[in-house]
Specification:
about 170 residues, alpha+beta, SMI1/KNR4-like, seven-stranded antiparallel β-sheet, Knr4/Smi1-like domain-containing protein
Amino acid sequence: MRHASVPDLINTLQEREDCVVHPSSGQPRLPPGVSIPEEPQQYFDLCGGLELFLDAEYPSTVYGPASFVQAHLVLLAPLTLSEIESNIPRSEPSWNWHLIADAGTQNESVVVHVDGPHAGRCYSGFWETYPQDSPVLARSFATFLHALVMDEGQTHWEELFGKAMN
């Protein structure tokens, strides 16, 4: 099934009373030489974050640019950067993962690959298994956002994206 574009999804959410579309606050700051994929770039141009389906069983948040940070620093806390670097070589692709969303708690985050051949893919950022066991949830940010919007907070992410990737 073809997914809707990021602008179309944002427009749909702006019309809903159970969703909050925050005004755009610009693009996230990334380290030099790291570029943000096109779909998240569109997202940040159009809004500064989303609060989705606030009254549903499974509300979620898609972050604004201030929370779009390298995932290790949050999901592996309280480890220091030195401790993280001693356990995860800089050559690991997960160093290119940034936080993009959560399912109501930081324990259930979604990360997006920002650079390289897998740019735009969204992965599970569940704190107990991150980053060793972080399955692909969606092959693009628009596909991820589309699934959330179509589900309207009725299904837990694990089940929703387990179905989507099978």
